[in-house]
Each structure stands twice: as structure tokens, then as C-alpha cells.
């Protein structure tokens, strides 16, 4: 069961490696090997595997993370066979007992471990160059063998101080950051390798591990080069935790030295020598059963298995969350729209959705309106009720008494005034009514601005526009122009309403005051204030045309027949006859009465006109307008051209969903097996 758990995690590693582990956001339990250059990391791994397969040399040899998955297999287990043949004989099918597989070279088995080393060197050079550079891209290697325990290890570049070759000046920082990226996650078990013949307090690996695992709960120490320690020294105090305490403890090992490697000493012989060293050493022989590479491999396998068990619930929760996240993103990105049929579907759906939601926002039935503020069509209603209507009904008659006198005088024309004329009243009331035009036209502009705000609101809601920026821009232009086209006829209707009010004064209106009634009101008011009734006409004290001619003739006579030009401006002379005063009051009353009627009419009709010609006309014809402008093959082909980022994200989401779905199946099966084993 323990080996099965590790193999399940290996499958997850392979799945995530194909899509980029960093994209999953799920930290898999794994053992990360950390150590400085020449600390013996590679020798430990080769001793665990029992094979020479890692690159050797001076400086940084491990220049990319190596995810090493060891799979214990029974030699009798059926695997893909290899074929060998001797001359003149029938091919004999033989089965390799040990081989390696690289994730980047699927379906190829490396039975020669020298070839594995060569492939590591080749693939490293392809990403990190050939002169000492490093790369974060991992190499995934799986080794099947009856001589290994099922185990997963991640070998990282050794900690270094001085750059060589193509290495950048900050190589120390780069390696350090790469290592921290692996060991800082809580699911990482840190295998800190330190040479025993150095001061443990100066161990780079333990120092780095201590930065992310301050209590030493997930760090296991490996002490190498035990056989090279000075005579009379040992690591007993370290093993007992009296120097630097680690919860998982320390394991001492003896590796092959450089001379052993150069003389091609077999690993099997090296393991035998290691066993003999600890078994015969006067200090270590009593604890030899917890020393050496075989014990280290067993301990690591046990630790990793327990860590996987403990991490399963959290892994499943994170996996489910990530799966939901990628499905939502994929849904927001939508399907691929490279063919005409899919483009037509997307465009028609968008046109219908926008048209429907534009109507719903204005109608008040849109489900996503902000409940905390007045929005949508309700704002237009507020404009009419709280802004436009109070402004119109609050306007008062603005009459200048001198202007009224002038209009009365001018109405007589060239003849002396014998009877009151309605011309002054008509001129004055028209001017007053035309004052209503400016706020009415401004109301059209305000409603137009509200419609523009609604358009922006809806356009910003659609994630499809993130995929097609050209579509959003063109869509906005079409809708904005469509609304703008309705402004001109709306303003024309508004002007017609104002002009209609000013053109014909309806004295038959229920609220209208007739001339006789107005005279009666004025007389009553004058009596109430003690003012005399109109006296018989008295000579008017103004310079009428007749009076001006008489005066002019007298001046001509007195000047000896010399004719003088009239003044540029003729105004009433000071003072006003009682009759003219009375006429002015009557006219002013009539103007005020009819202006109030006009205000009520305008306050009532202008909102209706705006709703009819601007709001409803735009709303009802929007779908047709969008369809005619956007639903064209050449237009759709141009506008539904997806940006590269969206296409890449969709591809990534599909890959991640496939990988995470498969991972969920693996974890579900694993948890089920564990529960079954408990029964």
C-alpha cells in the first residue's frame, strides 16, 4: 500500500509536469535534495538507485531540477519486452529488469544507464546551455527496478558561491531562489545533505532549510563522508540531536569517493563497503542498523508515505478548488470561434443578449441592478420628476414693465390708439413660452447621457469583449450612433411642442382666463387697493407718430423750414396714462395665466416626447440596427478575431481541466483504497 501511494503521487507529478506544475497551485508531497557542491548529493542518489546514471564533473553538474521517480517492480511483472536475436535463430523475447523513462521522450525505455546520463546532459544543455548555465525547467525521470524502493526525490543544483562559464554574476542568488521555491511549500520534505568532515554550524543546506522549516519538523539530515572524518571524531552528538535538532533525525552514509568513481568501483561493492564500515566501526557498530544508504532509502520511503497520507485531504480540497477555478475561466473565455457558423452563433447571441438586457435595464426588470442605488430606467424617471418638472413649473413670468408699455405703444402703429390691441399680449406670451425650450432641450441631452451610461454598463459586463477588443469598440460605436441618431428627431419634436404652445393661445382651456375676466380681476384688485377705476382717456404723454409729426412741423416752422432727423430711439416719455396702466395690468395677468398653462403642458408632454422618440425608439429598433451592422460575414470575420492571449489561456484551461480531472480520479481512488484497507 505504501508503494502504491507514492506511485499515485508520481502519476500526479507526471500529469502536472505536462501542463506546468506552477500552473496547478497544488503542492505535491515530495522529497527535495538540498546540498552544496561536492557534498555528495549525486552519490547518495546513485547509491539509492544502485546505478551510475548522473552526470559528473567539476562545478555545478546538476543544472536543472531532476524529478527522480523510483518504482519497485517484481522481475516477473509483465512489461513491454525487448527483442534480441542471434544469427540464424528465431527471435527470443527477453524482458529488461531495469530501465529508465523520460517524460519528455514518451514510450522510450533506456535500459543502458549510460544512455540515461547522456540524455540528462543533452536535455540540460538544450535548456541551460553548455557552459554552466542553470534552468528552472525540471527533467522528469522514472526508473523501474526490483532493486529500489518506491520513492520520489527531487535533486536540485548544488549551492554555489562563485559563477563560472556562462553563469550570471548572481548565480548564488538564482540557485538559492530555485531551491527555496521547492522547499518553502509545506508539502516538501527537505533532505539536507552535509559533509560530516565540516562544521555542521556552517552547513549551507541546514541553514537554508532552517529558513523555511524553523522547527525542523520536515527536514531530515544526511551526513556524508563519514569515512573521511579526522581520527577520534564522530557524529554521535549530531545523530543524538545535541548539535542541531531535527524532528526526522539524521542518517550517516558512506559514498564512493572521486578516486572510486574514476576507478569505476561498482555501486554494489560500495554498498557492501558501507555496510562493513558501519558494522565494524567501534563507535557506529552498535547503531549500524540505522546507518547507511539502504536504511536511508527505507526511512525516506516511510516518511514520504506518511506525509502523503496526511496531505491527501488538503490536496483534494485544493484540487477541487482549482478545477472549479479553471472551469469558470474556460466558461468566461467561451468556445473557439474560427468558423463562420460559430461566429454567427456568437454574434447573434451577443446581439440578442445586449438588446434584451438594454430593454430590461430601462424597464426595471434587469436582475443585476445595484439594489443600493437608483439605476437604469429609474434614473430617467427621476430626471423627469425631480429635475425637469420642478425647473419648468418653478419658472415665473419675466416681464419688464417698460417692455410692456413699449409693446402697447407699438401695437397702435401709425394710427392713434383708440381701442386695446391683443398684439402686445401675443408678443409677450410667445416670448415667455419660448423660454421653456432651453430646459426642455437640455432634458433631452440628460436622458441621452443616461442611455450612454447604460450602454457602457452593459458593455463592461460582457467578458466576451475581453476576447475580442475590436468587437467591443465597433459594438460601442454602433450602439452609440444608434442612440445619437434618435436625439435629433427628439429635439425636433420638443421644439414643435414648444412652438405649438407659443403659436396658438387656447382661451378655451379650462384654466384659461378670458379678457373680460381679466379686466374684472384687475378692476377688483384696483378697488381692493384703493386705486381709482380707469378715468376717461387723457392726453397720452408719449411721443406717438402723430405727436412726433406735429412737434416736428412746429420745429420746422420755427427753424425757417429746416427739417431735422428723428432720434435714433423713440421711448415712452415719463409717466403713463391711467388707461395704459390698466391695459398693462390686464396683459400681465393674461400672460401669467397662459404661461402657467403652457408650463403644465410642457412639463407633461416633454417627458412623453423624450420617451417616445428617444428611449422607446432606440430600444425597439436596437436589435434591428445591431443585426444590420454586425451580422455580416466579413464584419464577423474581422471583429471576432481573438487575441493570442485568450487563445493561449483557453488551451491552458483545457489542459489543466483534463489534468486536474484525471488527478481527482486518482486521488478519489487512492482515498477509497485507504478506506477499504482500514476495514
From TrEMBL:
Gene3D superfamilies: Dynamin, middle domain (1.20.120.1240), P-loop containing nucleotide triphosphate hydrolases (3.40.50.300). PROSITE patterns: G_DYNAMIN_1, G_DYNAMIN_2, GED. SMART domains: DYNc, GED. GO terms for molecular function: GTP binding; GTPase activity; microtubule binding. Keywords: GTP-binding, Nucleotide-binding. GO terms for biological process: endocytosis; intracellular distribution of mitochondria; mitochondrial fission; peroxisome fission. GO terms for cellular component: cytoplasm; membrane; microtubule. Residues 25-313 form the Dynamin-type G domain. Residues 584-675 form the GED domain. PANTHER family: DYNAMIN (PTHR11566), VACUOLAR PROTEIN SORTING-ASSOCIATED PROTEIN 1 (PTHR11566:SF220). Belongs to the TRAFAC class dynamin-like GTPase superfamily. Dynamin/Fzo/YdjA family. This is Putative sorting protein.
Amino acid at each position: 500500500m505504501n508503494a502504491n501511494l507514492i506511485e499515485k503521487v508520481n502519476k500526479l507529478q507526471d500529469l502536472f509536469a505536462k501542463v506546468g506544475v506552477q500552473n496547478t497551485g497544488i503542492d505535491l508531497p515530495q522529497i527535495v535534495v538540498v546540498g552544496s557542491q561536492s557534498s555528495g548529493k549525486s552519490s547518495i542518489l546513485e547509491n539509492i538507485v544502485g546505478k551510475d546514471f548522473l552526470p559528473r564533473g567539476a562545478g555545478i553538474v546538476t543544472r536543472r531540477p531532476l524529478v527522480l521517480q523510483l518504482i519497485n517492480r517484481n522481475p516477473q511483472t509483465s512489461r513491454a519486452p525487448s527483442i534480441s536475436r542471434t544469427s540464424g535463430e528465431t527471435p527470443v523475447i527477453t524482458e529488461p529488469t531495469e530501465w529508465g523513462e523520460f517524460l519528455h521522450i514518451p514510450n522510450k525505455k533506456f535500459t543502458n544507464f549510460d544512455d540515461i546520463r547522456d540524455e540528462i546532459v543533452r536535455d540540460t544543455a538544450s535548456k541551460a546551455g553548455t557552459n554552466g548555465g542553470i534552468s528552472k525547467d525540471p527533467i522528469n525521470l522514472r526508473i523501474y527496478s526490483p532493486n529500489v524502493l518506491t520513492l520520489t526525490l527531487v535533486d536540485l543544483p548544488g549551492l554555489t558561491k562563485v559563477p563560472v562559464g556562462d553563469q550570471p554574476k548572481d548565480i548564488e542568488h538564482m540557485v538559492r531562489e530555485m531551491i527555496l521555491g521547492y522547499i518553502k511549500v509545506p508539502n516538501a520534505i527537505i533532505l539536507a545533505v552535509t559533509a560530516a568532515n565540516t562544521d555542521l554550524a556552517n552547513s549551507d543546506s541546514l541553514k537554508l532549510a532552517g529558513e523555511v522549516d524553523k522547527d525542523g519538523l520536515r527536514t531530515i539530515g544526511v551526513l556524508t563522508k563519514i569515512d573521511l572524518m579526522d581520527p577520534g571524531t564522530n557524529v554521535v552528538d549530531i545523530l543524538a540531536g545535541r548539535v542541531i535538532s531535527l524532528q526526522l533525525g539524521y542518517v550517516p552514509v558512506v559514498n564512493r569517493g572521486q578516486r572510486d568513481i574514476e576507478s569505476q568501483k561498482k555501486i554494489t561493492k560500495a554498498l557492501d563497503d558501507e555496510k562493513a564500515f558501519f558494522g565494524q566501526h567501534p563507535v557506529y557498530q552498535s547503531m549500524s542498523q540505522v546507518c547507511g544508504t539502504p536504511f536511508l532509502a527505507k526511512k525516506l520511503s516511510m516518511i514520504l508515505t506518511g506525509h502523503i497520507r496526511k496531505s491527501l485531504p488538503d490536496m483534494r480540497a485544493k484540487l477541487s478548488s482549482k478545477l472549479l477555478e479553471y472551469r469558470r475561466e474556460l466558461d468566461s473565455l467561451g468556445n473557439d470561434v474560427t468558423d463562420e457558423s460559430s461566429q454567427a452563433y456568437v454574434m447573434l447571441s451577443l446581439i440578442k443578449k445586449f438588446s434584451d438586457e438594454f430593454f430590461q435595464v430601462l424597464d426595471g426588470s434587469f436582475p443585476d441592478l445595484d439594489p443600493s442605488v437608483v439605476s437604469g430606467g429609474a434614473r430617467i424617471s427621476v430626471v423627469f420628476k425631480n429635475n425637469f418638472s420642478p425647473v419648468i413649473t418653478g419658472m415665473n413670468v419675466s416681464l419688464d414693465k417698460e417692455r410692456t408699455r413699449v409693446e402697447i405703444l407699438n401695437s397702435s402703429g401709425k394710427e392713434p390708439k383708440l381701442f386695446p390691441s391683443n398684439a402686445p399680449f401675443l408678443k409677450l406670451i410667445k416670448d415667455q413660452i419660448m423660454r421653456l425650450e432651453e430646459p426642455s432641450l437640455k432634458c433631452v441631452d440628460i436622458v441621452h447621457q443616461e442611455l450612454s451610461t447604460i450602454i457602457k454598463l452593459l458593455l463592461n459586463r460582457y467578458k466576451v469583449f475581453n476576447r475580442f477588443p475590436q468587437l467591443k469598440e465597433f459594438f460601442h460605436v454602433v450602439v452609440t450612433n444608434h442612440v445619437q441618431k434618435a436625439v435629433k428627431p427628439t429635439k425636433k419634436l420638443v421644439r414643435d411642442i414648444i412652438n405649438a404652445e407659443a403659436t396658438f393661445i387656447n382661451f378655451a382651456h379650462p384654466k384659461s382666463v378670458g379678457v373680460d375676466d381679466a379686466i374684472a380681476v384687475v378692476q377688483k384688485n384696483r378697488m381692493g387697493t384703493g386705486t381709482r377705476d380707469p378715468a376717461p382717456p387723457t392726453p397720452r404723454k408719449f411721443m406717438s407718430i402723430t405727436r412726433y409729426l406735429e412737434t416736428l412741423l412746429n420745429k420746422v416752422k420755427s427753424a425757417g423750414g429746416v427739417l431735422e432727423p428723428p432720434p435714433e430711439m423713440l421711448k415712452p416719455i415719463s409717466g403713463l396714462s391711467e388707461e395704459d396702466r390698466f391695459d398693462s395690468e390686464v396683459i400681465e395677468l393674461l400672460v401669467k395665466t397662459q404661461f402657467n398653462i403652457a408650463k403644465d403642458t410642457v412639463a407633461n408632454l416633454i417627458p412623453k416626447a423624450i420617451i417616445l422618440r428617444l428611449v422607446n425608439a432606440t430600444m425597439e429598433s436596437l436589435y434591428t440596427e445591431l443585426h444590420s451592422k454586425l451580422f455580416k460575414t466579413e464584419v464577423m470575420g474581422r471583429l471576432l478575431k481573438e487575441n493570442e492571449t485568450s487563445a493561449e489561456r483557453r488551451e491552458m484551461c483545457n489542459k489543466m481541466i483534463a489534468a486536474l480531472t484525471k488527478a481527482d480520479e486518482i486521488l478519489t481512488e487512492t482515498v477509497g483504497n485507504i478506506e477499504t484497507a482500514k476495514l
